[in-house]
Design a protein that fits this description.
There is one protein chain. The protein has 2 domains: 122 residues, Aspartate Aminotransferase, domain 1; 229 residues, Aspartate Aminotransferase, domain 2 (3-Layer(aba) Sandwich), CATH 3.40.640.10. The chain is an alpha/beta fold. The protein has an 8-stranded mixed sheet with strand order 1-9-8-10-11-12-13-7, sandwiched between helices. It has a 4-stranded mixed sheet with strand order 4-5-6-15. The protein has a 3-stranded antiparallel sheet with strand order 14-17-16. It is built from 15 helices and 17 strands. It is globular. Helix 13 runs parallel beside helix 15. Bound molecules: pyridoxal-5'-phosphate (PLP). The site of pyridoxal-5'-phosphate has 14 residues, from helix 5.
Length: 434
């Protein structure tokens, strides 16, 4: 059950929550319960009636998506749809996706363990490479244990649906990622969504009585805005209100913390459930949950997104282990320092286009508003050699479409200056009324 906790029309629903308005608007191909023909769609089978109209409606609203064609090794520059460009759209924050040691570790693991894991972790897919990775993560994070998942999406839905059910309560930030929202839905717990970063609203939500268990879930660094959750205050709040604190460090792991462990470590707090991904700063694929060993035992026994899927290939685990070793090493410190420097410079260059916030982030959103204009500006940037993808509803709330610049430690000052200049030119090339 999802209850809307905040006041205001869209606030409190979080990203991708509620009925899909696109689908709702265009399902007009039934009259009095009977299917009626849709003009221009006579060749469709009854089962596919409406697809074309749905697609057309997405196009009309500037929400139709296609997949850019990427070529070559991922790095600070890349090939997109045949253009050689500076890449401001990957989550490869530390440049590890193309790091020779990470690539070599993957090659070594393939030769040692073969191409695939051949089964789920609980059957025959739990090889040495998985255990090594998890042992490393637990030491790095300072937790009793850790558990690898196939992806961050799988980790979030697995944790939330394992730890909570009816009659439990989940309290969730309104801008939490779709995987958290879907985990909330799957859990069947009652969900109260609080206004973004609003501690008072979060506390009001946690005051509710009559629940078996309460859990507050937040991202640490928000994926589409780059701002940070007040983790210290949330830790204190959860302890006071008897709630579990779950933190998604997808965009903070590798970037924050004394050795890249995440924002929680940087702030000196310990969430009950710490989730991080391996496909972003760690440059490979997969995700992990770190915490007490009884939490991990519970997940091994209950998380359907771990139990009922083939384990990640050992090669990916081998590459991820190497990536985390680099992250925790002096080389990791150097890369983090360069990323911080890049963030400060880029925020300075773009300051007139950014919402004010206390800290510079490696995720830099330039909010445009309208989806169609956003995508046109993104295309202009691409044509001028800068890849800054447009982000639209339902990934962000309607009316807040944006270019999302993601920075890498490998970007040079010249890359950043070029991006700022290209942004200005592209904004000018696509005036507001277009
Ligand atoms: C905050 C957050 N959590 C979870 C995920 C999912 O991680 P993955 O891409 O590994 O599925 C993402 C990104 O996609 C994310 O931004």
């Amino acid at each position: 059950m999802l209850s809307r906790f905040c006041t205001g029309v869209n606030r409190g629903e979080g990203r991708e929550q509620g009925p899909d308005p696109v689908a709702a608007e265009i399902r007009t191909d039934r009259v009095d319960g009977k299917r009626v023909g849709v003009i221009g769609m006579s060749s469709e089978s009854p089962a596919t009636t409406g697809w074309t109209a749905e697609i057309e409606e997405l196009r009309r609203r500037g929400l139709f998506r296609t997949m850019p064609k990427m070529e070559g090794l991922p790095g600070r520059t890349c090939w997109v749809d045949g253009n050689h460009v500076i890449n401001f759209s990957s989550n490869n924050y530390l440049g590890l996706a193309g790091h020779p040691k990470v690539i070599q570790a993957i090659v070594d693991a393939v030769q040692r363990y073969g191409a695939g894991s051949t089964a789920s972790r609980l059957i025959a897919g739990n090889c040495e490479a998985h255990r090594e990775l998890e042992d490393f993560i637990a030491r790095w994070k300072g937790t009793e244990a850790a558990l690898a998942f196939g992806s961050g999406y799988q980790a979030n839905i697995g944790v939330l649906s394992s730890l909570t059910a009816s009659p439990d309560l989940i309290v969730s930030d309104e801008l939490n990622h779709a995987s958290i929202i879907d985990g909330c839905r799957l859990s069947r717990a009652e969900v109260k969504v609080y206004s973004h970063l609003d501690l008072n609203r979060a506390e009001d939500a946690l005051k509710a009585d009559g629940f078996r268990r309460k859990l507050l879930v937040t991202e640490s660094v928000f994926s589409m805005d780059g701002d940070r959750a007040p983790l210290k205050e949330l830790r204190e709040l959860c302890t006071r209100r008897g709630a579990l604190l779950m933190v998604d460090e997808a965009h903070a792991a590798g970037v924050h913390g004394s050795k890249g462990q995440g924002l929680a470590e940087e702030l000196g707090i310990t969430p009950d459930v710490q989730m991080g991904t391996l496909g972003k700063a760690a440059g490979t694929s997969g995700a992990y949950v770190a915490g007490r060993s009884d939490l991990i035992d519970l997940l091994i026994n209950k998380a359907r997104s771990l139990i009922y899927t083939t384990a990640l290939p050992p090669s990916v685990m081998g590459g991820a282990s190497e990536a985390l070793r680099i992250t925790a090493s002096e080389e990791g410190d150097v890369r983090r320092a360069r990323l911080r420097k890049n963030a400060a410079l880029f925020h300075g260059l773009l300051h007139s286009h950014l919402r004010r916030r206390p800290e510079a982030s490696h995720i830099v959103p330039v909010v445009i508003g309208q989806s169609t204009r956003t995508m046109k500006i993104s295309a202009e940037c691409l044509g001028r050699g800068v890849f800054a993808h447009g982000i639209r509803y339902p990934t962000v709330p309607e009316g807040t479409a944006r270019l999302r610049f993601t920075l890498m430690s490998d970007h040079t000052d010249a890359d950043l200056r070029r991006a700022a200049q290209v942004l200005e030119e592209s904004l000018e090339a696509v005036p507001e009324e277009s």
